[in-house]
Design a protein that fits this description.
By secondary structure, this protein is mostly beta strands. Helix content is 12%, strand content 49%. The chain is built from one helix and 30 strands.
Length: 355
């Protein structure tokens, strides 16, 4: 009898031990899962942010645009296109879809998939749908009157005569009627990728891996302006500037494309330039150089550049508005926070927190 009781007691003890070990295992899994999630968010904070089932990709969502006292930006906290009133400080969500914000010479646009919307006075209006035949590699350039311009990048066709190029990327610049009545017209083609293209002075300027080109829309003629590789164009009504793309991260120059097509060397960025943006406003180039805001007078006979003040923000993107510069921090170092900085005093205020 006593032996049966002992056996029963031993079975109960074993069951309790197994149950305790199961609970400990569940707890460990929960703790490990929690810490993994924390570290995953720390190492890749924007990985799982989605809108309508699509990833909120930091590629075009970093841009800033100002018009009529409204700052337009892509909010990585609300995952949407928003506006910020620079006077009243009111924030409004304009569109809860992942898209690319782009300011061009003809206006401000928001591109969602292949659909182009014009952003004006705090509202979006549909303009056109880009009739591209590829699902990836489509970049909107601009719209002029009833014509839209865009870039398509895709692999070389399998039947390409040059077998060594098969499968490598190639890029095309097209124009098409915004009504979609006519077939798209091919304006430019190149091996490799097109890093940027702009519609300026009734021409298309194209930045490729092989150099900088100008496409005259009236004649259809294409001219190579420089063998330099560039990152991104910035311009005003008169001046067109681009930053050099180079493997040397310690120094990258800015260059201006003159009206006769010649290239003029401007200011040089020292320290890591990365993919930092610049702006040309009223004949002056504003750019970030080693965490300093600098200005270069493009109208002067000789190059004149000067530092304005140190930012101390890890800022990567900027937009000019009257006597202020609007800055957006790096998404890794500053979570994409947006600051307004007075050009004269250098006083900074964080107006949009993206934590």
């Amino acid at each position: 009898m006593e032996q049966k009781e002992n056996l029963k007691s031993e079975k109960t003890r074993r069951k309790v031990c197994v149950l305790l070990w199961v609970l400990v295992g569940i707890s460990l899994i929960a703790v490990i899962g929690y810490h993994y999630e924390v570290w995953e968010k720390y190492l890749n904070p924007y990985k799982d942010r989605r809108v309508g089932g699509r990833n909120f990709i930091i590629d075009g969502q970093e841009s800033l645009a100002v018009s009529g006292g409204l700052l337009y930006y892509c909010d990585v906290s609300n995952y949407a296109l928003c506006s910020y009133n620079l006077e009243t400080k009111e924030i409004r969500i304009l569109e809860e879809k992942t898209g690319v914000l782009k300011k061009t010479g003809t206006g401000i646009y928001y591109i969602v998939d292949f659909e182009v919307y014009r952003v004006f006075e705090g509202a979006l209006s549909f303009v056109c749908r880009i009739p591209a035949d590829v699902m990836n590699g489509v970049k909107f350039i601009d719209i002029d009157k009833d014509a839209a311009y865009w870039i398509e990048s895709k692999a070389q066709p399998e039947a390409d005569e040059a077998a060594e190029k098969e499968g490598l990327p190639c890029s095309f610049v097209y124009s098409g009627n915004i009504t979609g009545e006519n077939e798209p017209k091919l304006l430019f083609q190149t091996d490799g990728i097109v890093r940027d293209a702009v519609f300026v002075h009734q021409n298309i300027y194209v930045m490729t891996q092989n150099g900088v080109y100008k496409v005259e829309l009236e004649t259809g003629e294409t001219a190579k302006l420089s063998d330099l590789q560039g990152r991104k164009f910035c311009f005003d009504e008169i001046h067109i500037v681009f930053q050099e793309y180079s493997e040397d991260e310690d120094e990258r120059n800015y260059y201006e494309i003159l009206p006769d097509g010649k290239i003029k060397e401007l200011a040089a960025c020292t320290g890591y330039a990365g993919n930092k943006s610049a702006a040309v406003v009223q004949g002056k180039l504003y750019y970030i150089d080693n965490d300093w805001l600098r200005v270069c007078d493009l109208t002067a006979e000789t190059i004149q550049e000067e530092p304005l003040f140190e930012l101390k923000l890890s800022a990567r993107w900027l937009e000019m508005y009257e006597q202020e510069v609007i800055l957006r921090q790096d998404f890794i170092c500053g979570a994409g926070d947006i600051w307004v900085c007075d050009l004269e005093s250098g006083v900074k205020e964080r107006v949009i927190d993206q934590d």
